[in-house]
Amino acid sequence: MPPTESTSSTPTANPPGSATPAIEFKDVEKRFGKTTVLKDLNFTVAPGERVTLIGPSGSGKTTILRLVMTLEELTGGYIYVDGKPLTHTEKNGKRVELPSKTTRAMTTRIGMVFQQFNLFPNMTVIENIIEAPVHVLGRSKNEAVEEAKSLLEKVGLADKADEHPTRLSGGQQQRVAIARALAMSPEILLLDEVTSALDPELVGDVLEVLRDIAETTDITMLLVTHEMQFAREVSHRVMMFDGGQVLEEGAPDQLFNDPQHERTRSFLSSVQ
Ligand code: ADP
């Protein structure tokens, strides 16, 4: 069942409960060479929950999303998706890497949208959207095209199916990227500063599409954004990061109206 939405602009504080988290970070460590970016990081995200990561630049937020998407190698600890290990498991007290096939099968349930859209420039909009459903999920081309058309409708770009991405505005490209992620029917959607590269007048349409997804689906979302009003509207929970650690977390109203840490207060006053 999708999460029940209140009619006010603030989502209900309690997302649908479940014994098995959609995402679990257990003792996660991430090093780049000698630099440790994340250390002993533990948190869970419930199925259907929408969690926004905020915090100063360099605090590790993007790295967290990239680890879930397996675009970065996990150097310590474990990440579980739906209770199943993503890249490493514990066997006889030892940390063991899973076969890449197992990991790849898990990541088909995860979609990611990037700051820089990352569309295939040599393909049309519709070809971008059907690429993975056809080649990764084995859907028939006709079925994938029908689904892609209805997704383009959803993101307000029904008339752009045969355009090349370079002929679209940044906001339109980002909406295609969102449609492309949704075409894989993800259980988890990762959104990494998806409006940061856009001209201010194009941000609203992209946020509107994301609001619609939040209201009409039960997709678990983990997002990094500097759009605090948007975070307040769509998140069940906000986590404030500093130096690779969760400094504090809470329902958006609580965290934004009554932050407990001076560092959260100064961060919020710098972005709001
Ligand atoms: P945020 O998203 O909070 O701005 P990031 O996750 O992008 O933070 O980065 C966290 C830290 O990891 C930064 O110090 C950054 O320089 C470092 N980092 C990120 N990616 C790499 C990389 N590929 N190689 C080396 N250092 C990296």
TrEMBL record:
<dbReference type="GO" id="GO:0005886">
    <property type="term" value="C:plasma membrane"/>
</dbReference>
<dbReference type="GO" id="GO:0015424">
    <property type="term" value="F:ABC-type amino acid transporter activity"/>
</dbReference>
<dbReference type="GO" id="GO:0005524">
    <property type="term" value="F:ATP binding"/>
</dbReference>
<dbReference type="InterPro" id="IPR003439">
    <property type="entry name" value="ABC_transporter-like_ATP-bd"/>
</dbReference>
<feature type="domain" description="ABC transporter">
    <location>
        <begin position="23"/>
        <end position="268"/>
    </location>
</feature>
<feature type="region of interest" description="Disordered">
    <location>
        <begin position="250"/>
        <end position="272"/>
    </location>
</feature>
<keyword id="KW-0472">Membrane</keyword>
<keyword id="KW-0029">Amino-acid transport</keyword>
<dbReference type="InterPro" id="IPR003593">
    <property type="entry name" value="AAA+_ATPase"/>
</dbReference>
<dbReference type="InterPro" id="IPR017871">
    <property type="entry name" value="ABC_transporter-like_CS"/>
</dbReference>
<keyword id="KW-0813">Transport</keyword>
<keyword id="KW-1003">Cell membrane</keyword>
<feature type="region of interest" description="Disordered">
    <location>
        <begin position="1"/>
        <end position="21"/>
    </location>
</feature>
<keyword id="KW-0547">Nucleotide-binding</keyword>
<dbReference type="InterPro" id="IPR014343">
    <property type="entry name" value="Ectoine_EhuA"/>
</dbReference>
<dbReference type="GO" id="GO:0016887">
    <property type="term" value="F:ATP hydrolysis activity"/>
</dbReference>
<keyword id="KW-0067">ATP-binding</keyword>
<comment type="similarity">
    <text>Belongs to the ABC transporter superfamily.</text>
</comment>
<protein>
    <submittedName>
        <fullName>Polar amino acid transport system ATP-binding protein</fullName>
    </submittedName>
</protein>
<dbReference type="InterPro" id="IPR030679">
    <property type="entry name" value="ABC_ATPase_HisP-typ"/>
</dbReference>
<dbReference type="InterPro" id="IPR027417">
    <property type="entry name" value="P-loop_NTPase"/>
</dbReference>
<dbReference type="Pfam" id="PF00005">
    <property type="entry name" value="ABC_tran"/>
</dbReference>
<dbReference type="InterPro" id="IPR050086">
    <property type="entry name" value="MetN_ABC_transporter-like"/>
</dbReference>
